[in-house]
Structure formats: C-alpha cells, structure tokens
Write a structure and sequence with these properties.
This protein is mainly beta and about 120 residues long. The chain is built from 1 helix and 8 strands. The longest helix is centred in the N-terminal third of the chain and has 6 residues. This is Cupin domain-containing protein.
C-alpha cells in the first residue's frame, strides 16, 4: 500500500456513508484516513493521542468545551490528546485525519457511531 499513489478526491468519491473513516495509507505507526462528515458527531476524547483534522472541502466546526474551531478547505487543526471535542458539519465535509493505528473514531465515548477502520477498494 505504501508504494501506491493514492488520489484523495478519488478516495473520497468512493465513500458513500458519513462518519466512517477509510484508510488512505499508513506512515510508520500512523494511519492517514479520509472521511465524509455531515451532522453532529459525539462528544469524545482520545486519552492517549492527538488527532489531526485537515479539511479538503466544506466547513467543519470542531466544538471544544471552551470554544469552537472553524475549519475551511486546506485548514489543519490538531485536537490535543485528552481534549473533549465534537465535530459538526452543517453540510457535507470531506476531510483527512491522521491518527495512530488502532485509534477508534469515537475515542472513549463508544456507542453506535463507533466504526471499524475501513479499507478503500
């Protein structure tokens, strides 16, 4: 997989459902994931790792307990480990996430939005 060229837009076009990250590639002990987001996710933390969000298209609001962080296309934000957050997208957002391998999308919250990491075609 690491020797293959991957196109972010093609990978995102292959994803049908929201809040279901797909592995685009991996580097060392990290997964680079693509995901489509729409609506409000769940409040959660990742106690042991930071989480990088990069917006490809759309506007993503990352709600924190003390403020909202608004990201547009090509914006990057890192949620520090242990910080409670809740991503929200009023309209569909395409994004890239970078997290250590094995990171669960719902962090410590669990629940019906928890998704196993999916592989792209």
């Amino acid at each position: 997989m690491t020797d293959d060229v991957r196109n972010v837009h093609e990978a995102l076009s292959a994803i049908a459902e929201h809040w279901q990250p797909h592995r685009l590639t991996s580097i060392n002990d990290y997964d680079v994931k693509v995901v489509k987001l729409q609506g409000e996710f769940v409040w959660h933390t990742h106690p042991d790792t930071d989480e990088l969000f990069m917006v490809v298209s759309g506007t993503l609001t990352i709600q924190l307990r003390d403020r909202d962080v608004v990201l547009g296309p090509n914006d990057v934000f890192v949620v520090p480990k242990g910080v409670e957050h809740c991503p929200k997208a009023d309209e569909e957002v395409h994004a890239i996430l970078v997290e250590p391998k094995g990171t669960v999308n719902t962090g410590d919250a669990g629940g019906d939005r928890t998704s196993p990491l999916r592989e792209l075609g």
